[in-house]
Design goal:
By secondary structure, the chain is α+β, with helices and mostly antiparallel strands. Helix content is 42%, strand content 28%. A hairpin with a 5-residue loop joins strand 7 and strand 8. It is globular.
Length: 202
């Protein structure tokens, strides 16, 4: 990793504050949309490898998870958002999303895609607005269903080695729904992102 891609404390604090503000906006939007209280964690910002993420995601305590990812790009910054659900979340997630079809593998995939469109969009739009850019989104892609987290993250779906990750945990009050949203910024985008942060810090 080059020196220009090392996150300093001021940049980390700035990005954490941006993520915090975006989370607040996303949580408010989700609460109205889902008619439920959304419990949000403090966002964690760090430079990580996929293996380190598997250790860092403390809130997922089940053996198996299901994951979906969605690419985004805008203002010279690209990356992908990964949404990871505990497998125990699906029954309550279906209630929350008012999903009435059969909860089989196809139904779960549909729920994952619907959740991604809501959760990822709400957070990333808030981040983009503060950075004065606009993100375009690719179609969501299923990473895997009912797999161990480490296996999911180390699969061929993960196309990066060592880069910046923003981790946000969502919980829904009175529902057994718990998921982690990981926003991964590509290493080649970091100089551009850090330039934006420096502008905000000046």
């Amino acid at each position: 990793m080059t020196q220009s891609n090392v996150l300093n404390e001021d940049q980390r604090d700035c990005l954490q504050e941006i993520s915090n503000v975006a989370m607040g906006q996303a949580g408010d939007h989700l609460a109205r949309l889902l008619d439920a209280f959304v419990i949000l964690s403090i966002p964690h910002v760090n430079i990580l490898t996929p293996a380190e993420i598997a250790m860092a995601v403390q809130t997922i305590d089940e053996n198996n998870v299901s994951g979906i990812c969605q690419g985004f790009i805008g203002g010279g910054i690209a990356g992908e958002a990964m949404l990871l659900f505990n497998d125990t979340s699906f029954v309550d997630l279906a209630k929350l999303m008012k999903f009435e079809d059969e909860l089989n593998e196809v139904g779960e995939r549909e729920l994952l895609i619907d959740s991604t469109n809501i959760l990822v969009g709400a957070l990333l739009r808030g981040i983009a607005e503060q950075l004065d850019i606009e993100f375009s989104f690719g179609p969501p892609a299923i990473m895997g269903q009912h797999q161990e987290l480490g296996k999911l993250l180390m699969s061929n779906n993960v196309r990066w080695n060592h880069t910046l990750v923003i981790e946000v945990n969502y919980q829904i009050e009175n529902y057994d729904v718990q998921c982690d949203l990981l926003v991964v910024i590509t290493e080649s985008s970091l100089p551009r992102l850090f330039g934006k942060l420096e502008y905000l810090l000046d």
